[in-house]
Every structure is written in structure tokens, then in C-alpha cells.
């Protein structure tokens, strides 16, 4: 098979090269923490289980996990079963932790979810819920790029080869009629795969003309004088597309369905609380970022970044399928069989109990 047709699933096993995947970019390597809400004295364990291990990224696109941890909303639903949290800064490392049983449930972007599912031949993970939409922008140096057509011939960063934003940018380039080799990033646009933590400094130094990146990196670039040239949401129907999902080990789902339902109840209630209390939720997310990543985001970055992200229970399954198709068109993925990647039955049970409408798996769910 030619290199240009390398499976995206294999990308999950590539060396990280100090890059981040999907909506990543801020935080440390996997880092167990026990400073969230503690188990209430005398609370009853679900199915006698001592703890559930939850993974997420210390990043605003994982707002549900940040706020749910900070406000103790997951722990409240779990009762005497302790929520133990770990943070990751790259999709492959979280998938590896899930495969190894180091975490049971995780918040993660669509590309690593697809990678993990296809690499295990559909045997290890399931997507069990949505978490966030939006929060991805093309930010450019306004002195060098005045219009979308001006992107041709320029140096634009994405977080990593084959990651969610990289695939989206390659697809946009193709729709413009320009040619770029997906593997090397060379062509009518120079696509430079760059760690989100490095991108603002690279932009400031002048070595980049712009970047197609998730929040809060996009708002960091704006704070450095960049201009938002395109919001990726404008390219999608209803301006919605998946940026973060909830995944679970299939074995854990089979053995502890009530615990999974409890975490999903916590997620649904957290999203409802975020919608009802946006200012408090933003502050809670930033407080969690400070605890997890060592420092909070400044207001000039936090405020615009928060506005561009929408938390959601809906996994927006049709958009994940479209993102996989974009990777196929770019030559980064052989057409995958994603049937069975979703199991939304526990979530729909939770939603029904809460008086909410069910969500759809776009034909990619278990039967």
C-alpha cells in the first residue's frame, strides 16, 4: 500500500513527536489526580464497585469533564463509587490507557476515537455520548493574508498529521481546488504540523502565517494579533460538528452498565448546568484548568474561546462519519467500517428519564 494510503488507525501508534492530537494542547502527560469531589461518607457503591477511572484533557473542548469534575457532578451521581480522574495531552496515550484498563471512560476527539476503534477491529471501545461541538478556527496574520484565497502559498499550522483539525484543513484545501501531499504537507499550501503549545510562539516569531486550530489555541493567536479568517462551524450543517466524544471500554460497559449510566447522568446534568450557568461554568472550567494544567487561562483568551464551544449530549454521529470520509479523501485512511462504533442505548435511557429527546447514531450503532 502506498504511503499516502496509510491507515489513519496506524497514526495512533506513531511517535508523538511532541505533538498533540484532536482537541489537545494544554496539560501534562497522564496524571492521576484525587483532588476532585470526594465520596460522601456512607454513600452506597454502585454494584459494589470501588471506583471508576475517567480520562480527559485539561482543555476547554473537554468542558463537560472539567466542570463535572470541578463541581462534583459526576461524583454525586456515582455515590459511593469514587470517580478517579487522569489527564492526557495526546489522543494515542489516552487510547493506550483505555486499552490497558488504566481508564474505563474517557473524553476524546473524533480522530483518536476512530483510530482506536479501527485499530482494535471494533473490539475495545464504544462511543457512548457527545460532549462538545465547535471551537475550531483558521486564524491568520492579517498583514500577510487578507482573504481565504490568500491562504494559497502560505505556511499554516495544524496540530498533528491526521488529527481532527489536520483532516479538516486538508479537506478544505481540496475543496478550494489546491493540491497538497497529505503526508508531507507540501504543495499549494505548506501544512506544518505543530504542537498547539508551540503554535502561538511560532506565530509570534513570524515562522507561521496562520493556523487551523482548536480553542484555546485559536484565541491565543488572536491575542497575539491574529485574525479569525474562518470558523470551521460555518462549513457544517447547522454549524455543528463533533469535537469531543465520550468513550468507554466495551468490557467495562458490559460488566458495569449502571456505573456507565451514572457517569452519563453526570454528563447530561453537567451540560444542563453549563447551559443554565454559563458564567459560573466558565469559572469552574478555568479553576479546573488551573488545578490540572498548573495555570488558568487569561480572560482575553478564556472569554472568546468559551463562547465558540457548545457542550452537547448529542454525539453528532453523522459528522464523525463525514470526518472519516474526509480522511479517506485526503489519502490518510482506507474506508473504515464504523458500524458498531456507537452504543447510545445507555445515553438514550438517561435522556428519556430526564425527559429529553433521544440522540441518533447515524446508522453506526450496535444492534
Description of the molecule:
This protein has 367 residues and is an alpha/beta fold. It is 37% helix and 17% strand. The strands form two sheets. It has a seven-stranded mixed sheet with strand order 1-3-2-4-11-5-12, sandwiched between helices. Strands 8-7-9-6-10 form a five-stranded mixed sheet, sandwiched between helices. Helix 2 (63-70) crosses helix 11 (278-293), helix 4 (91-100) packs across helix 5 (110-119) and helix 8 (217-223) crosses helix 12 (299-307).
Low-confidence stretches: 1-36
- Tell the overall outline: globular
Give Rg in angstroms.
19 Å
Q: Supply the helix-strand structural class.
A: alpha/beta
Report the helical percentage.
25-40%
N-to-C SSE string, H for helix and E for strand: HEEHHEHEHEEEHEHEHEEHHHHEHH
Main β-sheet: number of strands, strand sense, barrel status?
7 strands, mixed
SSE layout:
Blueprint: H1 8-11, E1 31-33, E2 51-56, H2 63-70, H3 73-78, E3 82-87, H4 91-100, E4 105-108, H5 110-119, E5 125-134, E6 136-140, E7 155-158, H6 164-175, E8 190-193, H7 199-205, E9 210-214, H8 217-223, E10 227-231, E11 242-249, H9 250-255, H10 257-276, H11 278-293, H12 299-307, E12 309-311, H13 317-329, H14 345-353
Parallel strand pairs: 2-3, 2-4, 7-8, 7-9
Antiparallel strand pairs: 1-3, 4-11, 5-11, 5-12, 6-9, 6-10
What tags apply to this protein structure?
about 375 residues; seven-stranded mixed sheet; 14 helices
Summarize the structure.
The protein has helices at 8-11, 63-70, 73-78, 91-100, 110-119, 164-175, 199-205, 217-223, 250-255, 257-276, 278-293, 299-307, 317-329, 345-353; strands at residues 31-33, 51-56, 82-87, 105-108, 125-134, 136-140, 155-158, 190-193, 210-214, 227-231, 242-249, 309-311. It contains 14 helices and twelve strands.
